[in-house]
Amino acid sequence: MYHISKEHSLAIRQQYNTAAQRATAPLTTPPWLTAVRAAESKKALDIRVLDLREVTTFADFFVICSGSNPKQIQAIVEEIGQQLDQRGEYPVSIEGFANAEWILADYGDYVIHVFSPKSRTFYELERLWRHAKLVPIPEEPLTEARS
User: Fold this and answer.
1) What is the pTM of this model?
2) How far, in Å, CA of 7 to CA of 69, rounded?
3) Reduced to 3 states, what is the DSSP secondary structure of residue 123?
4) Measuring CA to CA, how many Å separate 86 from each of 12, 71, 89?
5) Rounded to whole angstroms, how far apart are CA atoms 39 and 80?
6) How confident is the model at residue 11 (pLDDT cuts 50, 70, 90)?
7) Domain definitions of the chain by residue range
8) How far, in Å, CA of 113 to CA of 102, rounded?
């Protein structure tokens, strides 16, 4: 597995750390939905959210999606990271960024998986975790008032 370099990670965070750029998501929006909206903004394909709470204890949710090519896959992960950073959420680890066939971003309670179409077909996470519940993704972003 590959790790994102510290320099790359810091450069991403520094771009979005000014107070003027911070736009905190409503506290009632679950972090997995923030990740989904970020992936949607970068045209991620076939986005799925699995609820693992009744199946395992190491994570509550998987967010699974695909990108068409390595640059798009990396852009999806970067956008997810930037939007979650605005919420004060940071990954425990990121694996596979350099190769960009399957990038895994572990946020503790939820794990983001961004695949190439070939890797997604090969690993079939949805089949492996078929006992997890598929979470419906709301069509429109939540528009609740901020605290």
Assistant:
1) 0.78
2) 23
3) helix
4) 12, 23, 7
5) 6
6) low
7) 30-134
8) 7
Q: Is the pLDDT of residue 49 over 60?
A: yes
Strands (E), 81-125: 93-95, 102-106, 110-115
Distance from C-alpha of 85 to C-alpha of 91, rounded to nearest angstrom: 9
Query: What are the C-alpha distances in Å from 84 to residues 36, 54, 71, 123?
Result: 11, 25, 20, 26
Q: CA torsion 43→44→49→50, rounded to 10°?
A: 170
Q: Please, are residues 78 and 15 in contact by the beta-carbon 8 Å criterion?
A: no
Q: Which CATH superfamily is domain 30-134 in?
A: Beta Polymerase, domain 2 (3.30.460.10)
- pLDDT at position 28, please? 83
Cβ partners under 8 Å of residue 19, min gap 6 = none
**What is the mean predicted confidence (pLDDT) over 17-28?**
49
Q: Is residue 47 within 8 Å of residue 36, measured between CB atoms?
A: yes
